[in-house]
Write a structure and sequence with these properties.
The protein has helices spanning 14-25, 38-47, 92-110, 124-129, 137-145, 175-182, 185-199, 224-236, 248-253, 268-279, 314-336, and strands spanning 2-6, 31-36, 54-57, 74-78, 116-119, 151-156, 162-165, 205-209, 241-246, 262-265, 283-288, 294-297. By secondary structure, it is α/β, with parallel strands linked by helices. It has two domains: 1-149 and 292-297 and 310-337, 3-Layer(aba) Sandwich (Isopropylmalate Dehydrogenase), CATH 3.40.718; 159-281, 3-Layer(aba) Sandwich (Isopropylmalate Dehydrogenase). Helix 3 crosses helix 5.
Length: 337
């Protein structure tokens, strides 16, 4: 299989975790190709003393048509060298390059030239400075693939924990009105379909978290649960194996997530804080609902440690393993359909 590693923001830790991942990956049978800037990969290779055989290419056709070998170099599909390193800084041209890499990788996956993409972190302020009207990878890939509804699904291979988000990068004050407009059904449908398609779980057991503290204590702390969340969930139980609404603190504190195949959190921090506490080094972010396979590590650009050589590549490697697992399953389903 051919996996594309997008470089992410070149002022963050993306290049470092890719270089470290390559040294642990090179004996695997699957080929990984970087999409980004060859010059920036060389910059970090020298700065961090991570001696790596890097080869610049202009097209995937430049890769020799032979099986991957352990001594094969790390190919870099280079989009630009007209960028300077400002390690740990927010920079518009770094934001632009990171998005161009995502676009190129997505295009190659959509055309069938690559099997999956694993994206190193981008920086939201940098891509905004570059003029992109997107919040991040998820909505950009939804736009590029013209898919109906993409969903962020956080997965941990170690604990089997899976957390999906009903709302993602929106202000907390808009969560309630957004949920009122969408309801729970489209999120549960997307989650159940993703678990079946990508993990082979035919009738997934789903948990839904409440919106307010204590899931509102029957309307004492907020009205969303009693006014629309609980009534809708009662109807959805006819179509899904689903339970809730659970108070998030008690749910994760008592490790009740082990009773379910996946958890639907209603807003960003409600899902990501416990997930990262439980699976920070091994967690993976997967975008479901796309015609292509895309995963990423569950950490950000980490500007504060960029260029210091202390970034951990474990989550990026986990993301690569999951991308291959899902791509192989999808290929199997296509050949047996």
């Amino acid at each position: 299989m051919l996996i594309l590693w997008t470089q992410g923001d070149t002022n963050g830790i993306g290049s470092e975790v890719i270089l470290k991942s390559f040294h642990r990956w090179r004996h695997r049978p699957h080929r990984a190709v970087v999409v980004g800037s060859y010059c920036m990969m060389k910059f970090y290779e020298k700065r961090l003393n991570l001696t790596t055989p890097l080869v610049e290419i202009e097209s995937l056709n430049d890769i020799p048509m032979q099986e991957k070998t352990p001594d094969e170099p790390l190919y870099v599909l280079s989009l630009s060298c007209n960028i300077k390193a400002n390690v740990g800084e927010i920079q518009a041209d770094a934001g632009e390059l990171s998005m161009k890499a995502v676009e190129r990788a997505a295009t190659l996956c959509l055309s069938g030239e690559a099997d999956a993409m694993v994206t190193a972190p981008i920086h939201k302020e940098a891509i905004a400075k570059a003029g992109y009207p997107f919040q991040g990878h998820t909505d950009f890939l939804e736009h590029l693939s013209q898919s109906g509804r993409a969903q962020m699904l956080l997965c941990d291979i170690e604990t089997n924990l899976k957390v999906a988000l009903a709302t993602v990068h929106i202000p907390l004050g808009k969560v309630s009105e957004t949920l009122r407009a969408s309801g729970l059904r489209p999120h549960l449908t997307a989650l159940a379909n993703a678990l079946t398609k990508n993990f082979g779980i035919q009738t997934p057991r789903l948990a839904v978290l409440g919106l307010n503290p204590h899931a509102s204590d029957n309307g004492v702390i907020g009205k969303e649960e009693t006014e629309f969340l609980q009534p809708e969930l009662a109807l959805l139980k006819q179509d899904f194996c689903v339970d809730g609404l659970f108070a998030a603190d008690g749910f994760f504190g008592a490790k009740r997530y082990k009773e379910f195949d996946a958890v639907l959190a209603l807003y960003h921090d409600q899902g990501l804080i416990p997930f990262k506490m439980l699976a920070f080094e091994t967690g993976v972010n997967m975008t479901t609902g796309l015609p292509i396979v895309r995963t990423s590590p569950d950490h950000g650009t980490a500007f504060d440690i960029a260029g210091k050589g202390i970034a951990n590549e474990a989550s990026f490697l986990s993301a690569t393993h999951l991308a291959i697992q899902v791509a192989e399953r999808r290929r199997h389903l296509e050949t047996t359909a």
